[in-house]
Amino acid sequence: MASKQLIDEYRRYLLLEKGLSKNSIDAYLRDLSKLISFAESKNISLEIIELHHLEQYLAELYDNEISPRSLSRIISGNKSFFRFMVLNQYRKDNPAELLESPKLGHKLPIVLSVEEIDQILSVIDLSTPEGTRNYAIIETLYSCGLRVSELTNLRFQDLYFEEGFIRVEGKGSKQRLVPISETAIDKIKNWFEHRKHIIINKGSEDIVFVSPKGKAISRITIFYHVKQYAEMAGIKKDVSPHVFRHSFATHLLERGANIRVIQEMLGHEKITTTEIYTHLDRNFLRQEIIEHHPRNRVAKK
Fold first, then answer.
1. Considering Cα of 185, then 187, then 190, then 191, what sign does the dihedral take?
2. I want to staple 181 with a disulfide (CB 3.0 to 4.6 A). Which of 143, 152, 156, 193 is the partner?
């Protein structure tokens, strides 16, 4: 069975050699715990587990109606773990190497229109410190295209308001400079007027967005408020903080921004990750043609 020492070594491998973020490492270890539970139920050591055992394990997950996307992630994690075991001489082979991931359908991200974003912002109560903070959070997510984890880790030393940029630490601790709008800057400064009256916990002194108790705001709190405001605004889409990142990229592309620039601002390592927004752009262009082309306008009469 996997010892605590082995799991700790794997954690360090993911952090130091793979350069993964804490959230990614936690996801890998959660998936590994599922494999460990399966191996224990079959009384099989991970040092000797074979391909047919892993196929049985995945079949059981499939029977439990796990999504193809989650299954693909688990397979990728298994391959990573056994590569680590081979590298560290716990095994001579990687039994997961021949596992085939399920084919994933092309899933386009949810995007809000500018009007829908304004609707969400309009329901926030700016007479309260919490409302002022949350308005600044949503404006920053949309203005800069940040991941929610990048926003929760934002520090005062990362703000270059005079230059119009913020410094963001993305996946794998890679840093990038992202332009920030004057609107977002103003909303953050409004929040600072309330923040200075909060007693900040030790270790969170430099964190931009904190809770009323002086701790760094959590991802869960941001998810909760975003869902709440979307519902209050009557938005029927499944809105999460990441939707503002998708909207940021899509609106830039619709207005003619270069996809390489968008890739840089989003912190995507590969251009293929950013190219999903070109599919959304095609939908936008088609709608523009339907609404404005004279042939289509005649057909409507």
1. negative
2. 143
Name the domain count of the chain. 2
Do the beta carbons of residue 91 and residue 115 sit within 8 Å?
Answer: no
Which residues are marked as active site?
A: 147, 171, 242, 245, 268, 277
Of the candidates 134, 133, 129, which has an alpha carbon nearest to the alpha carbon of residue 227? 134
CATH assignment of the domain containing 234: 1.10.443.10
Q: What is the DSSP letter of 159?
A: E
Instruction: Tell me: do 145 and 230 sit in the same domain.
Output: yes
Say whether both 145 and 68 belong to one domain: no
Could you give the CA distance from residue 20 to residue 131 in angstroms, rounded to a whole number?
33
Quick one: which H or E segment has residue 176? strand 175-179
Does residue 298 sit within a domain?
A: no
Smallest CA-to-CA distance from 120 within 99, 103, 141 is with: 141
Give pLDDT tens digits for 206-245.
999 999 999 999 988 999 999 999 999 999 998 999 899 8
For every residue of 186-220, DSSP letters joined together read HHHHHHHHHHTTS-PPTT-TTBSSB-TTSSBPPHH
- Angle subtended at Cα 21 by Cα 146 and Cα 198, rounded to the nearest 5 degrees: 60
Instruction: Dump pLDDT digits (tens) for 243-299.
Output: 998 898 888 888 877 778 778 888 777 766 666 666 555 555 555 555 655 555 544
Structure tokens at 124: 């926030």
Dist. CA 30–CA 25, nearest whole Å: 9
What string of DSSP letters covers 81-106?
A: HHHHHHHTTS-SS-TTTT--PPPPP-
How big is the chain by its Cα radius of gyration, in Å? 23
Closest CA to 14 of 2, 1, 27: 27
